[in-house]
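ok new one. same drill as before - structure tokens go in, u give me an amino acid for every spot. 117 of them this time. try not to just spam alanines like last time pls lmao
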């Protein structure tokens, strides 16, 4: 809780409001967050406002948001979960990477295409 250039005066654990679990289903670190077109209520916390402002131009993962906000990922999950539950954020899991292609299937497809000539 030291102050200095770029250092926060409020400890990051206060962002969670003393809770040990998020209010809704926990997000994965790589879940993608997108800002919803809703007005934030006046009692929205400053960290939640910062998160929404960060997402104005587009989507980011939870980990990227945590890095930009200089917060632990766990605290960012709490913020995002609360905002998503209130309808201010949309979340989606990351797009899974493509699986291994079965080489024999591709070879059979190639043989079939060549036989069409």
């Amino acid at each position: 809780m030291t102050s200095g250039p770029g250092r926060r005066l409020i400890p990051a654990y206060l962002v969670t409001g003393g809770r040990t679990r998020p209010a809704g289903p926990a997000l994965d670190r790589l879940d993608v967050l997108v800002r919803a077109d809703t007005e934030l209520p006046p009692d929205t916390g400053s960290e939640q406002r910062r998160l929404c402002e960060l997402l104005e131009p587009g989507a980011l993962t939870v980990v990227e948001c945590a890095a930009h906000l200089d917060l632990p990922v766990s605290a960012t999950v709490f913020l995002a979960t609360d905002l998503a539950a209130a309808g201010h954020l949309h979340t989606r899991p990351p797009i899974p990477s493509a699986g291994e292609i079965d080489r024999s299937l591709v070879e059979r497809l190639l043989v079939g295409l060549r036989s069409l000539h």
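The mean pLDDT is 82. and btw The two ends are 74 Å apart (CA to CA).
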